[in-house]
Amino acid sequence: MEWTEETISRLRELWAEGLSTAEIGRRLSITKNAVVGKAHRLSLPPRPSPIRRGEKKQPAATPKAAAPAAASPTKAEATPEQTVQAVTAPVAAPQVEKPAQAATAPQAAPEKPAAKVEKPAAAPRTPARPKPAISRISDPEPKKRRGPTCCWPIGDPGTPGFHFCGATPLPGKPYCAEHAQIAYVKLRDRRDNVA
DNA sequence: CCCTGATTCGC
DNA sequence: GCGAATCAGG
Predict the structure, then answer these.
(1) DSSP 8-class letter at A44
(2) Which position has the higher pLDDT, A119 or A183?
(3) CA of A147 to C1' of B3 (A)
(4) Strand B nucleotides below 7 A of a protein CB?
(5) How many CB atoms lie within 10 A of CB A39?
(6) pLDDT of amino acid A34
(7) How far apart are alpha carbons A164 and A180 in whole angstroms?
(8) Is the CB of A37 under 7 A from strand C?
(9) Where is this region: Disordered (predicted)?
(10) Minimum CA–C1' distance nucleotide for A4
């Protein structure tokens, strides 16, 4: 990993925003360990960590070769039924990334043509806060809308209850207003942080 | 189990 | 300096 001013800056921001290390890692395409490690090295303000390292020894780092010769093999139970189900099934993830520009964008983008003012967040595996802000909407019978629908994933792909939001998306966007908010992360103005 | 963050230590 | 391995709590 090449910790450039740039990446360090981003790390700082994300860290400051209270994102989890794993989340930061996902956004920077690195492991959470890298994030934590670097954060620690940078002396970034530690966030509430539940653990309190008591006294305990840990071989740590590459103890692979350290194979405890501890005998006493009294465990010989090959439960045949305990087959490993797909723990993390590589489900055919629906394209929730890279919002395709609507082919027919009547009003184009109201945003600045500056293009990259925003970027799609990583696949929203666990939306920060889906917010049940769905206040009472008088929409008793939406019937079948055939237009585009919000493709924000609800639930885990591959599980029975999984579905997409389905609401009417914003013009030119794959998500509805509600989900677009969390789907797109604004590129923060780093003017006071560029140093 | 999953998640989380912190620390250690070989590289 | 880096980060995987590991620990440890929820």
Answers:
(1) P
(2) A183
(3) 37
(4) 1-11
(5) 21
(6) 93
(7) 13
(8) yes
(9) 39-152
(10) C1
Query: Quick one: which of A109, A191, A105, A188 has its CA closest to A148?
Result: A105
Looking at the DSSP assignment, which residues form a beta bridge with residue A164?
A: A153
Span A97-121, pLDDT tens digits: 334 333 333 333 333 333 333 444 4
In this prediction, residue A36 carries a pLDDT of 92
Give the CA count within 13 Å in the CB-facing half-sphere of A169: 22
- A172 within 8 A of A102, measured Cβ to Cβ: yes
Count of beta carbons in the 10 Å neighbourhood of residue A128? 12
Q: Strands (DSSP E) along A34-95, which ranges?
A: none
Reported as a pLDDT band with limits 50, 70 and 90, residue A2 is: confident
* Residues in chain A, total: 195
**How far is it, in rounded angstroms, from Cα A172 to Cα A118?**
14
Q: What is the pLDDT of residue A117?
A: 36
Whole-angstrom CA distances from A118 to A28, A43, A60, A183 are 15, 29, 40, 10
Protein residue closest to C3, using CA and C1':
A34
Give the closest nucleotide to A30 (alpha carbon vs C1'): C3
Point out the residue nearest to B5 (C-alpha to C1').
Answer: A49
Residue A82 Cα distances to A76, A78, A85, angstroms: 14, 8, 8
